[in-house]
């Protein structure tokens, strides 16, 4: 994970945000292009890192992995349907939503198996193979055995608010009340230097007017 994050960070950046979709939202009988076409302006995955989500298209670099979802052969109904492989479909979608962003993607055929002791927290709208149903089944279905999953790591401006907010919170700490902390070998000068490095790191994720606005909001907090 550390080495993967390093490949996505440059220009002084060191942190990436995690995203995931579990299960990946595909209706039973639908294909990957069908699922992606349902999200032309929004992402079909959710932010896992404790950051405030922003608009799509704000990303410096990303690595995306999709597993368990195949591309079925259908008549081309969109540019996504015209792609020849699952890999091309995912890449086309990423380049459309994140133009100019360094994006790598990987596709695995095998789904994520959810047999015991995997916790059974899935909706009844999910089939045993992890596909979505249009409506709840009449009878209780069997436990979900596998699901398609999409996961992503992003070097993204969403991290600016998180890192700058952490800097502001630590700046408010009265170090004189934490004598035991500094007795462990941490010097006051080292602490202040680390704070400034954190502030500098947060500035690496700024992106124009929106970044300035988020910093103003953090100051007001």
TrEMBL record:
GO BP field: mitochondrion organization
One GO cellular component term: mitochondrion
Cited InterPro entries: DML1/Misato
Protein name (Swiss-Prot/TrEMBL): MSTO1 protein
